[in-house]
Amino acid sequence: MPQPILSIAGLSKTYDDGFEALKSVDLDVERGEILALLGPNGAGKTTLISIVCGITNATGGTVTVDGHDNVREYRAARSQIGLVPQELTTDAFETVWATVSHSRGLFGLKPNPAHIEKVLRDLSLWDKKDNRLRELSGGMKRRVLIAKALSHEPRILFLDEPTAGVDVELRKEMWALVRELRQSGVTIILTTHYIAEAEEMADRIGVINHGQLLFVEDKGELMRKLGSKQLIVQLQEPLEAVPDALAKQGLELSEGGGTLVYTYDAHAERTGIAALLAALSEAGLRYKDLQTRQSSLEDIFVNLVREDK
C-alpha cells in the first residue's frame, strides 16, 4: 500500500477554558484525492487545518506530512502544504505578481518566474499580474490567495471554505479550478458546509461535528450505505392521521394529509413496496399518483448531525 500523503493520528485540541475543539481525530489522506470535510460552523474543521499547517499547537496526537512529522520536522512538513484561508487578507497596494512571488520567498525558495507565470496563467490571473490587489474583484482576490498558496509548489492544498460568500457562477468556476489542480497532481482537502460542494467535487467525504470525525467514506459508497429512497403516495382524499392498520409501515403524512411518505432501503432484497400497496388497498385508501425520490447527501448529513447531538 502506498504511504498516505497526510496521516493524522489521535489529534486533539483542548483550549485553556476546557473547550474540546478536537477529540482524538484519526485520518489518512491518499495522494491525489479530493477530500471534503463537511460539518456545521464550529465543528472543528478550521482547528484541524490550523494544527496540520502548524498555525495552532495540538494538545495531543501526531500529524505526518509526506513522511515528515509536523512538529519535529516543521519546515519540511510545512513546505509540502499550501493553505487558502477563509479570509481575504492581502496587501491591497501590492501587485499580483509581487504578492505571489513574495509568498514563494517566505519558504526560502529561490525566485522562479516561470513557475509564478504558470500559476498565474492556470488561475486566469496572467493579464492581472501588474494590477494592485485593491483593483481586483472578490473572485479574483480569491484566485490570488490560491496562487499564493501554490507559489512554493506544495503537494497538498487546503481550501478552508473556498466558496463562502461567493456567487453561484464563481463557485462553479472554483470547482472546475479545483479539479484542474487535482489533475496536476495536487492533493486537495477542502472544508465546507455547502453540501453541494462536497457532493460535486469530492472523492471522499468526512463528516466532522463537535470536534469528532464521525466517519470518512468514498462518496459513492456513502450514498449507497446511508442513502435511502422514498415512495411518495399522493392520496385522492387527505387524511388527518395514518390509519392504525398502516401504523407498522412507518409512514409519514405530509402536505396537509394529502401525501403519504414511505422510506425504504433501495438496495434491500425486499423493499416492502408491494406489501405497502396491498395494505393501502385493504385500508380502502385510493391514490392518484406514485413517485420515488432518492435521498441526497444533504438528507444524510442532516440526519447524522441530528443523531450526534
TrEMBL record:
Q: Which InterPro entries does its entry note?
A: AAA+_ATPase, ABC_transporter-like_ATP-bd, ABC_transporter-like_CS, ABC_transporter_ATP-binding, P-loop_NTPase
Gene3D superfamilies attached to this UniProt entry: P-loop containing nucleotide triphosphate hydrolases (3.40.50.300)
Q: Name one GO molecular function term.
A: ATP binding
Name the domain of life this protein comes from. Bacteria
Q: Which residues form the ABC transporter domain?
A: 6-235
Q: Which family does it belong to?
A: Belongs to the ABC transporter superfamily.
Protein name in the entry: Multidrug ABC transporter ATP-binding protein
Instruction: Name the species this protein comes from.
Output: Devosia pacifica
